[in-house]
Specification:
Layout lengths: L1 H10 L4 H8 L1 H23 L4 H19 L2 H11 L5 H25 L6 H27 L10 H4 L6 H27 L6 H32 L5 H44 L1 H8 L14 H18 L6 H13 L4 H22 L53 H4 L18 H5 L1 H7 L3 H31 L5
Helix pairs in contact: 3-4, 3-11, 4-6, 4-11, 6-7, 6-9, 7-9, 9-10, 10-11, 11-13, 12-13, 12-18, 14-15, 14-19, 15-18, 15-19
């Protein structure tokens, strides 16, 4: 460090290597990643403070951040200067590392067994870990008090004092404790990863933690090799000063990712699913907005889940207002046409519904005063074909989040929707047993996402519409011909 200062004074500027060396990237990058992990976890920790696992995760991440902050050479020099004791930062950093090791073991034991596991064996194991590693920390400070280490070493203390009495034992003690913790943690995680029933985010987080433990073992091997080389009169200090720091920095990043992934990955997946659902409903939402020109009120602070629920509610309310204009016969013919065009039944059902909704919207535009809602009889809200109680909407999927069908729920006597097929003017479902779509349009309210996705393909919709119209024309001609023939046949009494 003093050499760098002399070089800067001589040349007037730091070289790129010296500049990045002064930044201590191998220390600050993992500190930043660990801090980010702690910040991500902090809201959950504060909200669920009684959860011992979350508190343990927070404590572990905080200890890991402290290890890297106090291991920076400039911070080591500051610690020594403030306390007035040469190299006092060494037992302090070693103690932080040891406490971090103990936290890892305790967390893995509690995490794997679950907070409900209060068996005697689990409690005994956790007490054993706390007792052993507390003893190690006490031993580190006792050995430092006995050692004679007057010369300050900021980067190579482990190898410089590798042969010094008591300091030699202190170095071996912290490395042994660290190695044992990493081996045990790695073994526990490897066994856990192989267990069944883990979701992909938890499994990925465990794999990252296992990789972090494996890299920590590489760090220990580098340090021990350099120390043993000093005992035998060889110089492998570069393993301790140049290899170990970046390896342990990478290990810390893996550990941070391991704790972030199960929580952060699931959170992002849920957010992505909600936003994707919101986008998939956009075509049908834009179409139903034309029913009466209304729209979902914009709320700046609304959560994605609330926005999705409001869009679903708006669409279903609009479809209920279109009930009088929904043509069941057109829907049946469109479904048959979609099947004839080679679409599978589910896709054919969605395309037929899209054609029917577009036709209903156009009909309502032409005659807006012909009735805005279906005539509903008084009585409980019943959806035929659903195995639910009359007042229970749980069988309708998204309707359960509609807040009482929004605007429809306030209508006096929502009534029995069993007659919606008759209101549409379509024949009874029994007349068309091959048409696997409910004639009361309940399934339309359930399948709004599939209908919205079908609206993204206008060419397919037009092809279905054209074929359905052709079949209607041919059906009408055939009916007229049959009636003419029957009228010419004499009736025998």
């Amino acid at each position: 460090m003093r050499g760098t200062a002399v070089l800067a004074t001589t040349t007037g500027a730091l070289s790129p290597a010296d500049f990045f060396g002064e930044l201590y990237i191998s220390f600050w990058i993992p500190t930043a990643v660990l801090t980010a992990a702690l910040v991500i976890k902090l809201p959950s920790i504060v909200k669920l403070w009684r959860d011992s696992l979350l508190r343990a995760v927070g404590g572990l991440l905080l200890l890991a951040c402290c290890v890297f902050v106090f291991a920076v050479p400039s911070v080591i020099a500051w610690t020594n200067r403030v306390t007035g004791v040469p190299n006092v930062a060494a037992p302090w950093v070693y103690s932080l590392i040891t406490a971090f090791c103990a936290s890892c073991l305790l967390l893995i034991v509690a995490w794997r067994n679950g907070p409900a596991d209060r068996s005697r064996a689990t409690r005994r194991l956790m007490r054993w870990v706390v007792g052993v590693y507390t003893g190690v920390i006490v031993g580190l400070w006792a050995l430092f008090a006995l050692a004679d280490v007057p010369r300050e070493r900021l980067r190579d203390l482990d190898t410089y004092y590798a042969t010094t009495p008591f300091m030699r034992e202190e170095i071996l003690l912290y490395l042994a404790a660290h190695t044992a913790a990493c081996l045990i943690t790695y073994g526990l995680i490897r066994n856990w990863v192989r267990a069944d029933g883990l979701d992909r985010w938890l499994r990925g987080g465990l794999k990252a933690l296992a990789l972090g433990c494996a890299l920590n073992l590489v760090f220990d091997a580098s340090k021990l090799t350099a120390v043993v080389a000093r005992w035998t009169g060889h110089d492998l200090d570069w393993l301790s000063t140049h290899v170990a720091p970046p390896v342990v920095a990478l290990a810390a990043i893996c550990i941070a990712v391991g704790f972030i992934l199960p929580h952060g990955g699931q959170y992002l997946q849920d957010r992505w699913r909600v936003r994707a659902g919101h986008r998939r409903l956009r075509p049908l939402y834009l179409l139903t907005r034309t029913v009466d020109g209304s729209r979902v009120p914009f709320a700046l602070r609304a959560t994605p889940e609330l926005r999705l629920t409001r869009r679903e509610t708006f669409i279903r309310d609009a479809l209920l207002r279109l009930t009088r204009h929904l043509d069941e016969d057109l829907r049946r013919r469109a479904y048959d046409a979609a099947l004839d065009l080679g679409h599978e039944p589910g896709r054919a059902k969605a395309l037929a519904a899209a054609v029917t909704v577009q036709d209903a919207v156009a009909t309502r535009r032409r005659s807006p005063d012909s009735g805005t809602t279906a005539t509903l009889a008084s009585g409980p809200l019943v959806f035929p074909g659903l195995a639910t109680d009359p007042g229970d909407l749980s069988g309708m999927g998204g309707l359960s989040g509609m807040g009482g069908l929004s605007g429809v729920g306030n209508v006096a006597g929502v009534g029995d929707l069993a007659g919606l097929g008759d209101l549409a003017g379509g024949p009874d479902r029994a007349a068309f047993p091959e048409f696997a779509v409910s004639s009361d349009f309940t399934d339309l309210l359930q399948d709004i996402e599939a209908v919205s996705l079908a609206l993204r393909e206008p060419d397919e919709i037009e092809a279905v519409r054209a074929l359905a119209a052709a079949s209607s024309t041919s059906g009408t001609s055939s009916t007229s011909s049959t009636e003419s023939t029957e009228s010419s046949v004499p009736v025998h009494e």
